[in-house]
Amino acid sequence: xxxxxxxxxxxxxxxxxxxxxxKDISQEEVVVxxxxxxxxxxxxxxxxxxxxxxxxFWSGELLAHNAVSYDGLFDSGDASRNVDYSFKFEVGTNxxxxxxxxxxxxxxxxxxxxxEPLTIVEEESPDEDGGSGSLPAAGLLGTxxxxxxxxxxxxxxx
Length: 158
What we know:
By secondary structure, this protein is of the alpha/beta class. It is built from two helices and eight strands.
């Protein structure tokens, strides 16, 4: 019975601290290569989220290739048989980005990167008096207070 006040105090402390939320902002990398025909990107279109990277990677290809966006956002450089180029799509680059292989555009060697906007969950803004407008833990806090009070209040004996 002596542990009840200690337990109640711990519960009360936990409730007043609140939940600590970790943000998992994992970044992904999508790899684009050259297919076996040597005149197509593989995959031809990819979808990423702002903050992710697209890596253009090929080695020992029969023909030299590059990846250049039509809008000038990225450019892997001069065409080469060996390319290892990554581009990170920063926040603000969402949309559709078409790109080409300069030496083989006339053969239809093009691709598309669809960049989805990064979704950011905003915290509730305080109301006029500086409060948050609600106390989500108030019910739990009240319950913990009552349990704590009941634990330390001496019991009546019959």
